[in-house]
Amino acid sequence: DSSLWRSAHTHRINMAFKGEDHLDSLSLPVQRMHLIQVDSVQRWMDDLKLMTDCECMCILQSKPISIEKDEQNELTLPSQYSTCDNLQLLLKRAWIINTELTRIAQKLEKNRWQRVHSMTVRVNCHVRSMMNEYNSFTGNSSEEMQQFEKLLIDKCSEFTAFTERCIQTEDEETLKSMKSCINETLTTVAQCFGQLIELVLTHEAQNLLRQIDLSDSLYSTESAISGLFHLTQEGAHLCRIIAKEGGVVALFKICRQDCFRCLYPQTLRTLASICSVEEGMHQLEKADGILCLTDILTDNSHSEDTHAEAAAVIAQITSPHLTFTQHLSSFLENMEEIVTALVQLCQEASSGEVFLLASAALANITFFDNMACEILLQLNAMKILLAACSDKHIVDTPYSRDQVVTILANMSVLDQCASEIIQGNGVQLLMEMLFERSSSGNSAEVAACERVQQKSAVTLARLSRHPEVADEAIKLSCIPRLIKLCRSPTERNNSDSVLVACLVALRRLAVMSPDGLEDSDFQQLVKPRLVDSFLLCTNMEESFV
């Protein structure tokens, strides 16, 4: 369903991303922490059940409550809960325990023994509750898991006993000598807890991958892939676990079977998440993933959704801020086919989301290898991108314009680019981008607008070496706008990178048209060294008269 697919990408459009050479591009690493990025009241409401469970367990000394079979009990996970729901509950409990351990360390530093003891009891109960919850939906745990559970419970009991002795004595020397023992025990508890969680998550990843490998039905495979995707959304560490357990190879195996075509979008979305970590990238190379992505992108029988998700994976693995892309030798071998398919996807995109993913991949590729710009020029990509910008239904956000202007900036180093820019009214577009402002005030959108302003100024500066482009920019009153951006911090949202780009562009245009500047502008913004003009503008107070 197209609307469902679009909603899955909402978080991608609401992110700000950075690249190299002051020309930021979009990376699609889709890591997020559900437990933190929520309203504080909602966070409290979510935690309330867990905290009250904990207090009940304290009173009953961690003994389970006997219930009749037909009664409902909040402490028992309903059978209709999915694996993802159960894992979310486990991760919430783990997050609370981790937070409590951190707070215990803080209270211990301040010698607040009563608080340390009460929090230790609470952690002890949380650990037991977490184990009971996990075992209730997994059945019999492995021998290794049981050993870790026993070790952790023993350490928690030892920890509680230590702190209880502390509140029963008032002798400062005794407390001082016990403090180091408590610190060591706290560290041991934290390490055991971390190892247990690592083992649990690895076990869950193995189960899902085993389900994918052994499944002979679409429903079962889809359920396992969905579970893997939800795991990847919990952070880079889980992506590393999945990659190490063979997740990339298993998912590309799905993408090579026609019987699973309807699952390609979901599978590729999961791959994009896993490939945000180095382990995922190495596994992609071993699985010959670039060739598989190339086949999908160049196969016109696939749906637009599938092509868009393949573009998202390409955008991820070519992200300019990743430092582990050098080993993707196979990418260069298939780059021309990939770029051609992405340009076609931009041209035929039916929505802003599809265009964003395809243009983000192209933007990243222009950082990845210079040859990509020459290929784009041969494919008339400049004309296609400029035409797309005139369609407000396709290029409908600052994020999309950020990708377009990134491509233009990187292509502007080519001499043949100038004529393409003029023919496609590209200078007019760059002028409009200098006025880019956020309509919502959202911090990510504001940052995207800053990047659009910066890159449009960079592109103008680079293209101004061509007299025809400089003349067109001057006719469109680019000089007054650049001066305004330099002198008015609010126009550039106090961005230093926008200021530097505008100063450089202004100086390039001033060479072509020195009469276009007033003497004060020339003396302050053009004549001095760049650093002096920069310091002058950053210290300039805006006049409200």
From TrEMBL:
Query: GO cellular component annotations, sorted alphabetically?
Result: apical cortex
In this chain the Protein inscuteable homologue C-terminal domain maps to 93-545
Q: Which GO terms describe its molecular function?
A: cytoskeletal anchor activity
Q: Per its UniProt record, what CDD domains does this chain match?
A: INSC_LBD
GO biological process terms, alphabetically, are: apical protein localization; asymmetric cell division; establishment of mitotic spindle orientation; regulation of asymmetric cell division
Pinpoint the Protein inscuteable homologue LGN-binding domain residues: 36-79
Q: Which Pfam families match?
A: Insc_C, INSC_LBD
Name of the protein in question: INSC protein
Biological source species? Upupa epops (Eurasian hoopoe)
